[in-house]
Design brief:
This protein has 168 residues and is mainly alpha-helical. It has one domain: Hypothetical protein af1432. The protein has 9 helices and no strands. The longest helix is centred in the N-terminal third of the chain and has 19 residues. It is globular. The protein starts with a helix and ends in an 11-residue tail after the last helix.
């Protein structure tokens, strides 16, 4: 799991200027989602760990890079560009499914077990479920409060589409 956390950190370090004061909040959220997903899958192999780490780093990133709450497609685009840059374009479809469906309210059976595990991991973090005691300390650092602020700001400007990232 350490390698996966290092991947999350390495990717997000490149976006520190865009994340600004939210860097630690988002990094910790992405890391918690990564750890939760690995735990749901129970001993994933090295390639799967790396895929989860990439998806975790990029899954909400376009909130900050694009300044939008309609961020699923732009986050997928960022992940796809990253994967092309490291010679892993063959992972793009699976990682894009993880990102595109992570806010689905019901299980995403059509997208495969990795996308469903990732969806469940993100929901567990959003719902403030405690991390297992074996996971490293990754404080919330105000992430959920920041999400509430961002949601409110978006909803004021887009009252007919307050949560464009949600999927049914």
């Amino acid at each position: 799991m350490t390698a996966g956390l290092a991947t999350v950190d390495a990717i997000l370090s490149g976006y520190r200027p865009e994340l600004g004061a939210d860097f630690e909040r988002y990094r910790n959220h992405a890391s918690r989602v990564f750890l939760r997903c690995c735990r749901i899958l129970a001993e994933p192999d090295a390639a799967t760990i790396e895929k989860i780490a990439v998806a975790a780093a990029f899954h909400d990133l376009a909130i900050w890079t694009e300044g939008t709450y309609d961020y699923l497609r732009p986050s997928c685009r960022l992940a796809r560009q990253y994967l092309a840059g490291i010679g892993r374009s063959d992972w793009a479809a699976e990682i894009e499914a993880m990102i595109a469906w992570h806010h689905k309210i019901t299980p995403c059976r059509a997208s495969g077990p990795l996308a469903e595990a990732f969806r469940r991991a993100d929901w567990r973090d959003i719902l403030l479920m405690p991390l297992p005691e074996t996971c490293p300390a990754l404080p919330n650092a105000g992430f959920h409060l920041r999400l509430a602020q961002l949601t409110w700001n978006w909803a004021k400007r887009h009252p007919l589409d307050p949560l464009p990232m949600m999927r049914w």
